[in-house]
Amino acid sequence: MLGGDQLPEPPERLPAAFDLTEEQLSAWRLHRGENPLEVRRHPKGRYRFDAPSGEYATLYCNADRLAVLAEVYGDVRIIETGQRGRQLSHIISEEDLHLVPLDDPGAQKLLGLDGRIGMSRQYPTTQAWALALHRWFPEADGIRYLSRHAGENRNYCLFSERCARKLRVEERGEISTLRNIVLLAADRYHLEVHWNS
User: Fold this and answer.
1) Is residue 9 included in any domain, yes or no?
2) Domain that includes residue 35, residue range
3) Buried b vs exposed e over 140-168: b needs ≥16 C-beta within 10 Å?
4) Dihedrals φ, ψ of 188, to 5°?
5) Domain tally for the chain?
6) In terms of DSSP H, where are the helices of the chain?
């Protein structure tokens, strides 16, 4: 029997069929380096829906330009001077993306899950689910789920190799030059900004 907060492991087969959600993506990404669409494949899963052993590459973004800062800095609650060089980019899909709607309680229930799949820090289990979803839905461009640090704002974990050709980027620049956005996010999500003007 599982503990009260323990997420279940994914089964061998998709427990119940459901439709993917189609969405014209408009999302924000905070990243290092010049290319926000750079393929990130970790040999061992690092973030929520990463492949456990590098089976696929991921790209994370959020539907709200302030919430993306809450997602990146929400655990530490501080934006240090060394973060000033991070880039903010707007990611837009040129066509509808097909997404696994893990923000939908109905889809969660069909999988035997609940909202913890997007909130829990049990990353080995969330990564196992992501790998299963990636295999069960070969047409899926990614996973949509609710933000852990920014309430109802939607997060996206995109399967980079499946959808990169459908995406375009509008770069906004280094966050050091976007002080008003950083301060608005800090105020809304109770983050501290530790850098001088």
Assistant:
1) no
2) 25-194
3) bbbbbbbbbbbeebbbbbbbbebbeebbe
4) -65, -40
5) 1
6) 67-73, 105-111, 123-136, 160-163, 179-189
pLDDT digits (tens, 9 = 90+) for 129-175: 999 999 999 999 999 999 988 888 999 999 999 999 999 999 999 99
pLDDT in tens, 8-60: 999 999 999 999 999 999 999 999 988 899 877 888 999 999 999 999 999 99
Q: Is the pLDDT of residue 2 over 60?
A: no
Q: What are phi and psi of 154, to 5 degrees?
A: -90, 135
- Amino acid identity at 65: R
Burial class (CB in 10 A: 0-12, 13-18, 19+), 17: exposed
Residues 172-193: tens digit of each pLDDT: 999 999 999 999 999 999 999 9
What is the helix (H) or strand (E) element at residue 144, kind and residue range? strand 142-146
